[in-house]
Structure formats: C-alpha cells, structure tokens
Amino acid sequence: MRILHVDKFLYRRGGAEAYMLDVAAMQRAAGHEVAFLATAHPENEPSRYASSFPRFVELNPPPPSLKAKVSAVGRMLWSVEARASMERVLDDFRPDVVHLHNVYHHLSPSVLRPLRKRAVPTVMTLHDFKLACPTHRFMANGAVCEACLGRHFHNAILKRCNEGSLGASAVNAVELTMHTYTGAYDPVHIFLCPSRFMLEKMRAARVFTHRLQWVPSFVDAASIDVKRSPGGAIAYVGRLWEEKGVDVLIQAAGIAAADLDVAGDGPELGRLEALAARVGGGRIRFHGHLPPPRVQELIRAAAVTVLPSRAYENLPIAILESFACAVPVVGTAHGGIPELIDPGDDGELVPPNDPRAMAAALRPFLEDPQHAFAMGRSGRRKVEERFSPAGHLALLMDAYAQAAARAGRGGS
C-alpha cells in the first residue's frame, strides 16, 4: 500500500510529528511505501518530495509587518500554494490512502480539495481539539474552558483565548468558523481519536459525529529498557507551557521536599526556574531538551513521573513511555489521562492545580521505593498488552479500509 502522511512539519517538533514519524517507520517495516507532504521547514528530515513542499511561514511569533500578517492570515484560511503542492505529490505518488495529522494554519484544509477530486481515501488523526476549539486547547485565561463547545466560536474573541490577544483570538475564531461552515474538512472519511475523551468531546462539539473512530496510540515497549532497581526522584518530561502545570509540580516537590528532574523547554522556563529557586530547596534540576535515549535514562532513574496538566490532554505518549520504562505515573484526573492510569496499580490521579494533593500522592512513591517499583512493572505489562505497535497498525489498516470503502461509494 502507498501511504501519504501530511503534517505541517516533518521533524520531531511535538507529539503529533513524533507519532507520524513512528507510524511511518512501522508501516515501512511492514512493507508499505510511505511518503510525506509538509511545509519546507529547515529542520525537516530528508523527503522524496521536499522540492514540492510549500514555503514555511513562521506564525509564532507572528510576522512583523502588516502586509506579512495579512498574508499569513490568508494562508491560514486557504493556501493556494499548499493545494498546488498536494496536487503535484498526488500526481506522482498516487497514494492508496492519505493520512492527515496537524495541517492547521501552515497548510490549511486547502490540501483536502485535491483528495476529494480524486476520491482518495483519507483519514485524519485528531492530535488536539482544534476542530472544536479555536485555540485547540479548551483553555481560557489559564483555566479549562468549554465556552466554544457546540460551535460558539465567538467566545474565543470575548475571552481573548489566544494569550490575551484580541486580534489573534479573532483570527482563530474566524478560521474555525469559516472552515466549519464551508465544510472544509468534509473530504476526510475517518477521524481517528486517540482517546475516548477526544471522541466524546468531538461528538459533543458536533464534529463529524458518524466518522469518528477510537484508535489509541502505541509505544514500542520492546525497544525500551526497563527500570532494573527501585529508588529515584520525581521526573517530568514535556513542554514547559502554562497549560502543562509544571509550576504546580514544582510547588508539590517543594512541599514533599523531593528531588525533581525536569526535561523539556518552552516559554515558561524562566518563570519555572525562578519558582524552583524559591520553593525547591536546591533539589530541582532543569535539563532542557534531551534526545530520546537520554529522556528514557532520566525516566528510569526516577521513582515516579508526573503529568501535572491543567489543560485537557488527549492520550499522552509520555505516560506510555514511562510505563514502557517500568516507572509509574501520577497524573491529573481529567482529559484522557484517566484512561491510562489505574490508581493504586500503576500510578495515581490527582485534581489539577492542587500542589498539596499532588505532594500527598507523590509521598508513597518516594517513601516506599519497592512499592513504586512494583507499580512500574504493572505499567509495563499494560503497554505490552494494550498499546503495542502491532495492535495499533492493525487498527490503522482497518480504518484505511473503511476510508477506502467510503471513498468508493462516492461520499463520506
């Protein structure tokens, strides 16, 4: 089978891109032919069709001049260049199926029109909540917000959800309103939801309710070494953004007088370092962005990892990777996180934005390393049994077949 993966980036920029590249590698190993379409970003991996990629335009921070801003907004709404790029790749590669990931903003749904014209089976993995929330996070002013649920997208403007900016929030609201009411995503035959939480939120938002399918993520546990002995500190691996709640974790580590290792980078780094200096007692270490092998070493050295998100998560790969290392996880009890953690067996769940509750949940792992070690082994068994690459590939191939059947019927 010839499979074309489409994302705005072709390097490990975030979870969506890491997933796409890992899936593509798995599909190639299974004998499928894989190609990519993305924007021409300087960090992209080598690609067969790189010369056909549309130009990359930096949107964060936005372009400095008014003319460039207007051009960028126009591209977010509809990109003639991206559509032409898709046409060229389709003409040469002739895929049996197209698998979309994060195409918002930089590519836009303009890349979908050539797929409809050719009746190409098309699936899209929903890595975030963009089709239901203009700013994709269900957050406003630092707290969970569902005001836009049900196509009330104007609330993003009223609440200035995009970092307090009226202009940026308006652009996001107009973008999603236009794409929703013009049926921009109609050419997609199947929408893949990594978490049941995502599926239910998309249903509540009236996003293609009859095309949604639950396909949980995977981790290649066989390629990841397990923790060999108990003990260790607390570890966090991920982006340093406000919605990730790392400030809550730092406060909890201070309350528990615990060692904490933080791997990742982002705009909150300076603020988090200052907070750690005030409350951490010199026990909090920031390691910056680390390559995957070093990340796994950091996880294995920990007694427990933490996902302190104050925003809804989808199905965090960070939890699956921690379990694959045989390390338990403490996570916040909302979004897709509770679908992965069984309290008392392989981790614990705590309320978001509650440092004291988190500190209380962390203490047993730190005070009883043997218990934490046993819970980590339980997490390892879970990912081996329920989140294997082979199982995920089988679900994907079934979704591709369903998309092909729908495309063959001439509709979605």
How would you sum up this structure, described in words?
The structure is a single chain. The relative contact order is 0.11. Helix 11 packs across helix 13 (369-386). The mean pLDDT is 95. The chain has helices at residues 15-29, 66-77, 80-93, 113-118, 155-158, 166-181, 196-204, 246-256, 269-279, 292-300, 317-324, 355-367, 369-386, 389-408, and strands at 2-6, 33-37, 97-100, 122-125, 139-140, 143-144, 190-193, 212-214, 233-237, 260-263, 284-288, 302-307, 329-332, 347-350. It has 14 helices and 14 strands. The two termini are 21 Å apart. The protein is globular, with a radius of gyration of 21 Å. It folds into two domains: 2-131 and 185-218 and 389-408, 3-Layer(aba) Sandwich (Rossmann fold); 221-386, Glycogen Phosphorylase B (Rossmann fold, 3-Layer(aba) Sandwich). 40% of the residues lie in helices and 14% in strands. A six-stranded parallel beta sheet has the order 2-1-3-4-7-8, sandwiched between helices. A six-stranded parallel beta sheet has the order 11-10-9-12-13-14, sandwiched between helices. A two-stranded antiparallel sheet has the order 5-6. The longest helix has 20 residues, at 389-408. It is an alpha/beta fold and 412 residues long.
